Amino acid sequence: MPEPLRRVLTADYLEGWTAATDGQLGDLLNEPGRVGPDEVREVYRKKSGAVYAMACALTARLAYGAGSAVAGPDAERVAAWGEFGEVLGILAQLRNDHEDLRDGAGADLRNGTATYRLAQLLHRSDRAGRERARQLFSRAAVSEPHHRELTELLRSPDVLRPCNRLLAELRHRAHALLDVLAPASPHTALLRSRVDAEARSADVCEQQERPTTGPSAGVSEAPVAPRPRPAPGGEGAGETG
User: Fold this and answer.
1) Separation of alpha carbons 11 and 119, rounded Å
2) pLDDT value, residue 202
3) Which segments of the chain does DSSP mark as H helices, in order?
4) pLDDT at 232
């Protein structure tokens, strides 16, 4: 392919994985009690959003060809596709968080991972509730009762409301981008469906998907050793673990 296009594809690839690595390090190093929701969202934007953005941008560059390698309309469309990928990646990470709680394993809590929901809970305005949540979190990795109580707090309306606002905001942005980028494409309906699947309201999913065998279903009574937390979409989105 033309040298200018090859250079910009290489740059997209390297910048995408550099951002993803930075996000993964932030995910490992951030302490939940010290980072707020905005900082967690920034980690998600890099860790998962950057990989999805890279995949979309590379695909768009190949579709638009050499014109995307220089400033102009094609380059702007590539950037917009990159933004769409970033939004979808953040949605996928939020869905990953939800599924960890839904399935009852709660690995994020056991690993001390700063998730968006946990950041909302540990930084709530209610001082008594905030302090109780912090106490529970300090014991959740080794105490099953504390783990269960903290999980229930993470499913409370006060925590779910800001999460659902973020899901709705990201869903709206993704659909707006598709309206401009691919209004008549036969693949647009599939992309919209993917966005909608990732952006389902967390409270609705809690009602539909919570285990029916009790609050500790699928949870071992013994502490679970920490393990690396993979980014979502590993097998289908570039192995972002």
Assistant:
1) 33
2) 79
3) 3-29, 37-44, 50-64, 73-102, 107-111, 116-122, 127-139, 144-154, 157-181, 188-198, 202-209
4) 52
- Kindly state the tokens that stand for 219: 């949870």
Interacting residues of 205 by C-beta distance below 8 A, sequence separation 6+? 98, 102
* Tokens representing residue 170 in the block: 């990201």
Please give the Cα distance from 60 to 112 (Å, whole number): 37
pLDDT of residue 228: 41
DSSP code per residue over 160-209 = HHHHHHHHHHHHHHHHHHHHHH-TT-TTHHHHHHHHHHHT--HHHHHHHH
* Sites in the chain below the pLDDT cut of 70: 104-105, 203-241
169/175 Cα distance (integer angstroms):
10
pLDDT recorded at residue 225? 36
Predicted pLDDT of residue 7: 93
| Two tokens, residue 140 | 């959740």
What pLDDT, on a 0 to 100 scale, did the predictor assign at position 35? 93
